[in-house]
Structures are given as structure tokens and as C-alpha cells.
Amino acid sequence: MHRLHLLILVWILGCGAACTETQAQPRLYGCPRDSIEAYSGEEKRPVLHFLDEGRALADRSVQLFAAGRLGELYAGMSTPFRKEHTEEEFWEMLAALERREGKLIEYEYRDQSLSYSDPSAIDLQRVASLVRYAVKATKREDGTILQVRTRREGREQVVVQIEMGHFSPDYPAELRYPKASGESVCFGFKGRLNVKAPK
Question: Considering only CA atoms, which of 95, 77, 89 is closest in space to residue 148?
């Protein structure tokens, strides 16, 4: 059975309110950006704006990561993460990652999706943006993937999770980043998007 093997969890927000939220709503769904774009009506505009913000932050975070500008990267992490981990601990996490995977030498955007747990309404203060990149590192070049998850903290987006891993060698290349059909097939979003915009 083909599946994505995640090798390394660089960091994951798993404490405080986020942990409580996860226990209350453990199931997560994903809707590709192309599918959001296919919905008609004005209600998709704030969702696309949210995804634009998430993509911009994810791109900047990967750029800082590749350039070794870890202090700036740490500053963009969520408040609960920075309360849980000092900047020194953060640097140690990334040093351990580099020892195992090598230095990040190349990355390329592949896709983006909206991550949500409540399909009855898109609450822009609770959903997340997930951006994936195909990457090459000095110790592992083929099939490596980097995922950046962001969400709103107040009115600004912050990074809550970055994962680096790789596809199983027998996982077909054409299935690694499947093209969205452009159809509105997102779970729970029937004929329209029910968006709860921030106040």
C-alpha cells in the first residue's frame, strides 16, 4: 500500500488551547485551493485571501529556513510554541534535522489546501493553511517533502507546524502532488461555502 512516510517532525504545536481543540474535534479535512476557487459566489473571497496570507508566510518561512535565518523564523512561530520552546531549543531542533537530512539546497512550491475540522462553517480563526514543497537536501534528494501549516493568531497568521519527510520509494511520482480536478468536492461544503469571517 502506497503512503507518505513522514521521517521527521520538526515541530508541532501540541499544547494548551490547540490540544484542547484537537481533543474536541479530532478529525481534520483538507480542501485543495483549486477546489475553493471553483466555488461560485463572493463567500470564497475571504477564504482565498486567507490562503494567500498563508502561502506568503509559508514561502517566507521556507526561505528563512533555507538561508539559516533562524532567529527571524522563530519570531514568526505561534505564541504558544514560543512559550513552550526557547529560541535555543528551536535552534537545536533544526540542527538535529540538518544532521539527519542535510542542508536544504532547493525547494519548489507544489500545492496548498485549506485544513478544517468543522465542515458546517469555515471559521477563519480556526482553519489552517497547509502548503507543500518538493525539496532537495544534501543527504536526501529524491522524494523529500516539506509541509508548512499556518493559522491566524488574532488578525495575523503565524506558523504552527513544519514537517519534513519523504515519500516511499515505490510511491508513483504522478500521485505525489495530484492535480485538483477544479470541481467543488470538499467534504461538507455542499453547493456553497459558509464562511465565518473574523470580526
Answer: 77
Domains in the chain, please, with CATH? 32-169+187-196 (3.10.450.100)
Contacts 24+ apart (CB under 8 A), 149-154: 149/115, 150/53, 150/54, 150/57, 150/58, 151/54, 151/78, 151/126, 151/127, 152/50, 152/124, 152/125, 152/198, 153/78, 153/79
SS3 content of the chain, % helix, strand, coil (to 5): 35, 30, 35
Encode pLDDT of 64-83 as tens digits.
Answer: 998 989 999 999 999 999 99
Q: For residue 158, give the C-alpha cell.
A: 503565524
Backbone angles phi, psi at 180, to 5 degrees: -70, 145
6-62 residue pLDDT tens? 333 343 333 333 333 444 445 888 889 988 988 877 889 999 999 999 999 999 999
CA distance 29 to 31: 7
Is residue 161 within 8 Å of residue 132, measured between CB atoms?
Answer: no
User: CA nearest 148: which of 12, 5, 3, 1?
Assistant: 12
